[in-house]
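Dear Dr. K.,

Following up on our conversation at the group meeting, I've run the structure prediction for Bleomycin resistance protein from Patulibacter brassicae. I'm pasting the input sequence below exactly as I used it, so you can double-check it against your construct before we proceed with anything downstream. Let me know if the numbering doesn't match what you have in your notebook.
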Amino acid sequence: MPRLRSAAPVLPVLDLAAAIAHYRALGFAVEAYAGAEQYAFAERDGVALHLSRWADHDPARTGAHVYLYVDDADALHAAWSTSGTAGRHVSPVDTDYGLREGAHVDPDGNLLRYGSPLRRR
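The predicted structure tokens came back this morning:
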């Protein structure tokens, strides 16, 4: 059976230029698609996200949800929450399933949850 090699969730956005600027401020390298579609490719540390302009997108109803496994949830929260980006930043907390998790909701209602393994104390 063929192996899966990677995945790239597609995040719906209302304003592609604003979304590109937002994800660049979060540290992603973002490149707009050269074709007629309003689409962009974001990449950071080997993790890919795609951004797609969707006229019928309703941030309260149709946002995407992505989980990112990271090395240090606290460091990512510190970087993202001081980046000057719009949206909502949720401070990391320890979970009972062994991860320290935080979150960011972008202006288009897309939820980026992230977690790192809890450090043994």
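Two things stood out to me. The longest strand covers residues 47-53. The helical segments are 16-25, 73-81.

Best regards,
J.T.
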